[in-house]
Request: fold
Amino acid sequence: MPQITEVIGISREIAWLPWAVTYFFLIGLSVGSFLLSLPHYLFGRPGWERAGRLALIGALACGMAAPVALLADLHQPGRFWRFYAHPNLNSWMAWGAFFIPTYLSGLFLYAWSSLRPAIAADAEDRGILAPLYRLFGGRALPWLSRAAATVAIIGACLVLLYTGMEVMVVRARPLWNTPFLPVQFALTAIGGAIGLALLLDRLLGGHEAATEARLNRALAMVLGASMLVGAAWFAIGFFGLEARHAQALASVAQHDSFRITAFEGQAALALAILLALWKPRGSGWLTGLIALHAAWMFRWTVFIGGQSVPKNAPGLYDYHLPLGPSGLLGIAGSMGLLVFLIILLDALMPPARTRAAAPGEALPGRA
Amino acid sequence: MGSGRRSLFAGLAASLSGTAAAAEPPVPSRGIGPRWGMVVDLARCIGCQACTVSCIMENDVPPDSVRTIVNTYEVVKDGVPGMAMLPRLCNHCNEPPCIPVCPVGATFQRDDGIVVVNADVCVGCAYCVQACPYDARFINHETQKADKCTFCAHRVDAGLLPACVESCVGGARIFGDLNDPNSTVRRRLASEESAVLKPELGTEPRVFYLGLDDVLAHKPEGTPTLWRPQHQEGI
Ligand code: SF4
Ligand code: SF4
Ligand code: SF4
Reply:
């Protein structure tokens, strides 16, 4: 085997910036949170009231913050209209421009139609905002809730599909070019959404131990599935069962940074699963944070780590997180926006006890 | 693109049957016309980077990027060290994976095979940058749009050679019409063994190399250079 030493070479800097990580993180959390809100708002399952409300806050806040990060990644947000003016329908990214509004409009309509009775019932306590609550509140519209939920469910599935496929089809990067990727994106998104709900349960007033336990049990299952998918990807590459996977593993396995990240990630997931099962009441802080961390780190490793693997050069490209808008400031700004939206929604949304009527259910005391 | 490819096949068929498309003047036209390509004779490349510099000057490439670069490697085979040069540029692939991913159809292939970016439409999403297996594309920091080698289409359309070809000190870069059986590129390809980069990907590059060591046809594994210049965002 000849030995090669690169004497003159250049770095191709990463082209999908931390904005892309932020977007995929937020839209994933939004979709996961939306799915987590369904047991309460669509199916009226008893015991899911608080989890449903927290999840809906998460879905709406992340759903509003995500497109901001996406537009920022275009380097020039005003360019977005071209996605609609000249769509190339062979491109998954082009489809995304249609799937995101489908999902978000379904989500907003679902949230509003599901909350209508609760908003109306809340009007008395809202002081000067009461007329607004009366305007937006009203009797339950089960048909609208169901229709909106259907649109949002279809939109959510399409968002999961396109975000996964967009990255998976890139043959130029073996690390991305695997059918495990969309599955892992979806699982870590749902895990992250449960983690967000667990954190919100602690951060927003009215912590419920039963909700925490329920969420922790769900989290253990999702994270367990995510670990299995990771193990399957590794096994296929390690035992050389498929050439592309073997190539992908070989491109990162010799680098300590990837080995440490993979080990740390798996250890954190195992810890979260053990904690969630062993101490489902009281561990929400930690398990929630780990699940969110896993969702972020998976995307960071795929996008930033994946782009630091040269296509035509040995070794890894250096990446240093810039402090400016395309780096730390961008991430901090997006997260700041998310926190602001969560606080705002928590303040505006009727409390969980003013339970949103499940479709078909009339609210006591209202016509 | 479909019609472009059909016309290309028609052009090839015509040229193979002796009714060659006229190579001069090399004005791209619809229907049967030239299919531009490059042959790089690696034995003649001395790694001087004259092409790198002339491309930057000709195409106003920002100082922190390149459309072409001559990668230089030390290759030790059976204990014997040697230097290997590998000029890299866009391959103007016949099946370019950078085109279908573009969400707005900004990047396309001309009838003469040159893959270009319509900067008026490009949104700078960098999907094409990801999809190119040859790292031939980058986001230009001045325009915030995709940038790449255009085979110097503006010069070729005016009947000139690409800047890197014209400035090549060793005469390693040869440019011409692959549809013309009498062109130098066709004759060299017919008489010598050639190779393309990453043939297994099915991209059908139209930049051919003479004397390419197989270990360099794929992603080279080994020791990276100590310093790779890179654009840094101002803080
Ligand atoms: S080398 Fe890359 S940029 Fe050039 S045509 Fe092929 S895939 Fe596209
Ligand atoms: S960067 Fe421009 S040319 Fe490349 S895929 Fe995006 S819009 Fe198309
Ligand atoms: S053909 Fe033109 S654009 Fe392409 S590498 Fe040569 S000088 Fe640069």
Notes: Residues B 101-102, 104, 106-107, 117, 122-128, 145-146 surround iron/sulfur cluster (ligand 2) (CB under 6 Å). Chain A has a mean pLDDT of 91. Residues 18-348 of chain A form a domain with the Formate dehydrogenase/DMSO reductase fold fold (CATH 1.20.1630.10).
